[in-house]
């Protein structure tokens, strides 16, 4: 089977520029256009925002984040709220900052049901209070005439009732009416075959795990040799999971919210959160996932970016600020805001149906800080699935007009590419002790010379599979 995938993957080795109207580029899916319900024309792009990481936030912090997100094509934040007593005040600050921004930036609640209690009827009051407090706020997302609300998990919540469906229906949805009526699009971690059982309860579903090829694990891939890793590229950006959700939701007339994410690495010991694994994020995951969603945009109502500031899982695209969840060891020094330019480009294409013209040359480049096979004196140990990631640097080039780009990872390892106007995805292997360098030239003149202070460390002090991201100004 891997041989078949390897042949398909050859199509993805060099993926050159995309610009202009969206065409009929191939996408790895099995969805029949006859089986799909046409969605509305209005599209939204939002980012998952961990309120639990904002304990020291001021109103200015919220204002800065909102302006930065808005400037990069993001329409709103999904505010992940948990049980901390101080979080309601930070939610209030978020709504105040959004209103003061004058941008029309939208917010909605994403109830974190792995944190919030949901065993008794009284537990639902917390959720209802959030809705009634902000339902009429000018910056709350109103969708199909109702107050948009989501969750992270919640598929086991019964709120003291006889079933999950009855709990959410009688203790949450039915008690909110008029201007407080909710358009409910949760992220329930259930099989799509169970969606029909929630008909009349949900108005849609958020597919959180669609952001990564989560099915790829060390146990599911039989050969970890670097020469075989390229065969995994066919999974990057694939829409099989989306198709399953869409086909299950369509008979219900329900909305679909898809996830897109640039990365995933978490490294908590068994004594803390006991989370130590990666999801495969190679082969330009962020760009390819966006491109796949853009191809099926008629079937996708909202794209949610995971995430703006979830530092513990390394998929943040916003600045590193606030209070980290003890993730400093793999987050500090690893700024990801270089991915915001990519967000702006692809979010615009998703919302409008046309890739925007590139007016300014820019290169975004990233890599891990050490080889996948490196050993470290780290009691937590290497993350699960580290064997299936490749030692490479990845780059996305935005060119205003045709140019050449040279990637280098050592004095003897470099490659020059011809790039067209628009976006181009490039990569190059990197060996222990290597560096990252990218040079864009046009008409014999150097336009960009990007060479960050970075070394691919063969002997790291601890395991860190986070991405070191840089971009030209």
TrEMBL record:
This is Glycoside hydrolase family 71 protein. It holds the Pfam family Glyco_hydro_71. Keywords: Hydrolase, Signal. CDD domains: GH71. The keyword Transmembrane helix does not apply. The keyword Repeat does not apply. GO terms for molecular function: glucan endo-1,3-alpha-glucosidase activity. Residues 1-19 form the signal peptide. It comes from Boletus reticuloceps.
């Amino acid at each position: 089977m891997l041989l078949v995938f390897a042949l398909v993957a050859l199509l993805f080795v060099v993926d050159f520029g995309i610009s202009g109207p969206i065409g009929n580029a191939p996408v790895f899916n099995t969805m029949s256009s006859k089986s799909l319900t046409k969605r509305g024309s209005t599209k939204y792009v939002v980012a998952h925002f961990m309120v639990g990481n904002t304990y020291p936030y001021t109103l200015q912090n919220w204002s800065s984040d909102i302006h930065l997100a808005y400037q990069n094509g993001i329409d709103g934040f999904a505010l992940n709220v948990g049980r901390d007593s101080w979080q309601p005040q930070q939610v209030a600050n978020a709504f105040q900052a959004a209103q003061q921004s004058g941008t029309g930036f939208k917010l909605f609640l994403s109830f974190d049901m792995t944190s919030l209690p949901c065993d008794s009827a009284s537990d639902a009051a917390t959720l209802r209070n959030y809705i009634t407090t902000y339902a009429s706020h000018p910056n709350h997302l109103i969708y199909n005439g109702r107050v948009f609300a989501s969750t992270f998990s919640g598929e086991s919540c019964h709120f003291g009732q006889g079933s999950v469906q009855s709990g959410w229906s009688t203790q949450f949805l039915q008690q909110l009416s008029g201007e407080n009526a909710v358009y409910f699009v949760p992220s329930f971690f259930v099989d799509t075959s169970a969606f029909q059982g929630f008909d009349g309860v949900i108005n849609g579903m958020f597919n959180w795990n669609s952001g990564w090829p989560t099915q790829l694990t060390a146990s599911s891939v039989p050969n970890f040799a670097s020469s075989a890793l390229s065969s995994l590229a066919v999974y990057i950006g694939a829409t099989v999971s989306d198709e399953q959700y869409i086909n299950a939701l369509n008979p219900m007339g329900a909305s679909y919210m898809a996830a897109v994410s640039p990365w995933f690495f978490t490294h908590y010991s068994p004594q803390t959160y006991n989370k130590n694994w990666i999801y495969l994020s190679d082969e330009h995951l962020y760009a390819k996932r966006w491109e796949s969603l853009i191809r099926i945009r008629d079937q996708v109502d909202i794209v949610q970016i995971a995430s703006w500031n979830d530092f513990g899982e390394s998929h943040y695209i916003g600045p590193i600020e606030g209070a980290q969840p003890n993730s400093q060891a793999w987050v500090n020094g690893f700024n990801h805001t270089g991915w915001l330019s990519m967000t702006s480009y692809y979010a615009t294409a998703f919302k409008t149906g046309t890739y925007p013209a590139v007016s300014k040359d820019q290169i975004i480049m990233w890599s891990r800080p050490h080889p996948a096979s490196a050993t470290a004196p780290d009691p937590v140990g290497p993350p699960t699935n580290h064997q299936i990631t490749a030692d490479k640097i990845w780059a996305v080039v935005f060119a205003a007009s045709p140019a050449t780009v040279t990637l280098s990872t050592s004095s003897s390892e470099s490659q020059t590419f011809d790039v067209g106007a628009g976006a181009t995805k490039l990569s190059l292997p990197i060996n222990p002790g290597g560096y990252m360098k990218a040079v864009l030239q046009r008409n014999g003149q150097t336009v960009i010379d990007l060479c960050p202070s970075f070394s691919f460390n063969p002997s790291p002090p601890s395991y860190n599979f986070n991405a070191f991201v840089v971009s030209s100004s």
